[in-house]
Amino acid sequence: MDYKPPCASSWAWRKVCEVKEIFKAAYGQGKWTDADEDYSINVGYIWLTQHNLDKVTWFKSVWNKFIIPKHSFILRLLNHERLLTLDSLVKIGITHQTNCFLCGIHAETHTHLFQECVFVNRCYTKLLEWLQLQVSGQITATKMLKMRNYTGFIRLLMSSLIADVQYKVWTCRNVCKIEGYVTHPVTIINRVKADCRMWIMNVHVGRLKREEIEWCTRRDLM
Ligand SMILES: [Zn+2]
């Protein structure tokens, strides 16, 4: 029960041992204590979900039918802070460069690139101008997703637009890293708009309610 994996052991073995440490809390005197039944995978999984898993708040803004899979894939990595940003590359010794490719001033981290960078803020500002919406204080994706002045189709559409902007910011950063130029935020939002217009016209145009059609028409989406 008190076994600790050596530092040189593999990632997979260290993960197995981490799970063992979590499950120790449900054992007393060598027995499964949280239920009357004997231990089974099903009982263990239910105990784990009730006691040890943090609630994922971003699930619906990453996995919904309005977001195309390649965007969901990048957003999932972003929310787990698993994109290969410069701070991660420095930690594993691949580079010594730390400055953000898009602003050239601050250290590139997930928080900087998708929340604080002047570049992403210009993209969010242009997105809100186009959608005729306003956010008080600093604009972030979380604030935009929590805005209360829209529901249903429009809310899902917003999650799709924000996902597209974040995907394009990450792509723009990668292009800048490889080819050395930065796409203008206005161009990024124009591409988001073009994607969205094509998607609405091809997939949703026949299913929209009158007020949703009016909302889209006022924003040049139909
Ligand atoms: Zn930056």
Question: How is this structure best described in words?
Answer:
The chain is mostly helical. It has two domains: 11-51, no CATH class; 59-218, no CATH class. The chain is built from eleven helices and two strands; from the N terminus they run H-E-E-H-H-H-H-H-H-H-H-H-H. The chain has helices at 11-24, 41-51, 59-62, 69-79, 86-91, 110-116, 118-131, 141-145, 152-179, 185-204, 210-218; strands spanning 27-28, 31-32. It has a two-stranded antiparallel sheet. Helix 6 packs parallel to helix 7 (118-131). The longest helix has 28 residues, at 152-179. It is flat, with a radius of gyration of 22 Å. It starts with 10 loop residues before the first helix and ends with a helix. The mean pLDDT is 86. The structure holds zinc ion.
Give the structure's gist in a few sentences:
By secondary structure, this protein is mostly helical.
Share of helical residues: 55-70%
Largest sheet descriptor: 2 strands, antiparallel
Separate helix tally = 11
Q: Give the strand order, joined by hyphens, for the main sheet.
A: 1-2
Structural class: mainly alpha
Strand content: under 5%
Query: Are there runs of 5+ residues with pLDDT below 50, and where?
Result: none
Mean pLDDT: 86
Shape call: flat
Number of domains: 2
Bound molecules: zinc ion
* Amino- and carboxy-terminal Cα gap: 63 Å
Instruction: Provide the succession of SSEs.
Output: HEEHHHHHHHHHH
Number of DSSP-assigned strands: 2
What Rg is obtained from the alpha carbons, in whole angstroms? 22 Å
